[in-house]
Specification:
- It is built from four helices and four strands.
- The protein is an alpha+beta fold and about 150 residues long.
- A four-stranded mixed beta sheet has the order 2-1-3-4, sandwiched between helices.
- It starts with a helix and ends in a 5-residue tail after the last helix.
Length: about 150
């Protein structure tokens, strides 16, 4: 009888240890996911789809963006990488073609997926171009358009 009670106690202790290890494992996974989400919010600031900053004193570049499009996704990633170099000089935004506001903006400026319009500080359209994910070509295009509004970089 004593051996049976001892076996039950050992099985119970093993089960508790196993459940504790399982809990720790799940806790570690949840903590890692939360850490990644917080880090991504800190390091990656998505491009705004708020078009109200257009014409408010700084030139703007607005990309017509279709979700799930590899081409516009690559361009958007490249813009996100270089826009910090243009911070304070110009605004960046997307016209999300999946929203009524983005569709209306695209129609108004005759944009399609992957095209962008460069607007003056007053909101006047200056040029439309299909953007590339090539960093140097993109920087050249931005710098050329900034020269049009009197900003040399």
């Amino acid at each position: 009888m004593m051996a049976i009670l001892k076996s039950i106690t050992i099985v119970s202790e093993v089960r508790q240890v196993f459940m504790f290890k399982r809990f720790i494992g799940w806790f570690a996974v949840v903590a890692a996911v939360i850490g990644v989400l917080l880090a991504s919010q800190y390091f990656f600031q998505p491009m705004s789809s708020d078009l109200s900053a257009i014409g408010q004193g700084q030139p703007s570049l607005v990309l017509a963006y279709e979700n799930f499009s590899p081409e516009s996704g690559a361009v958007l990633n490249q813009l996100n990488r270089i826009r910090k170099d243009y911070q304070g000089v110009m605004n960046f935004a997307v016209a999300d073609l999946g929203t009524p506001q983005g569709q209306a903006f695209a129609r108004q400026h005759n944009l399609s997926n992957g095209a962008a319009v460069f607007l003056s500080a007053e909101g006047k359209p200056l040029s439309v171009a299909f953007l590339t994910s090539d960093e140097q070509a993109l920087r050249k295009l931005l710098d050329e358009n900034l020269v049009l509004v009197g900003i040399a970089r």
